[in-house]
Design goal:
The protein is mostly beta strands. It has no helices and eleven strands. Strands 2, 4, 5, 6, 9, 10 and 11 form a seven-stranded mixed β-sheet that branches. The chain is globular.
């Protein structure tokens, strides 16, 4: 069974940085595409960043390009999201996602709040 546990969310001032971690277990981590999503209060969940299983190539939402970096350490079964130059509009619950074919699994999320 796939288990994903996010951590690292916090309250941070605008311009600050955070690194989110997603610890994975119960599946072959290197075989899955890993992504970070976020869901602001009252809004739909949106894709933030993705890193592929085959090449490690990455993709980002326009709103976070140049500020966020997704990475994965297959040996540690962990995916990270480095978030720099944080803005209030980045405030959301951030979710880790693992996908392989029709299989898609989610963590429970970690809260990121950006405010003065």
């Amino acid at each position: 069974q796939v288990q994903l546990v996010e951590s690292g969310g916090d309250l941070v001032q605008p311009g600050g940085s955070l690194r989110l971690s997603c610890a994975a277990s119960g599946f072959t981590f290197s075989s899955y595409v890993m992504s970070w999503y976020r869901q602001p209060p009252g809004k739909e969940r949106e894709l933030v960043a993705t890193i592929t299983r085959s090449s490690g190539s990455t993709d980002y939402a326009d709103s976070v390009k140049g500020r966020f970096t997704i990475s994965r350490d297959n040996a540690k079964n962990t995916v990270y999201l480095q978030m720099n130059s944080l803005k209030p509009e980045d405030s959301a619950v951030y979710y880790c996602n693992a996908r392989r074919g029709t299989i898609s699994s989610w963590g429970q999320g970690t809260q990121v709040t950006v405010s003065s």
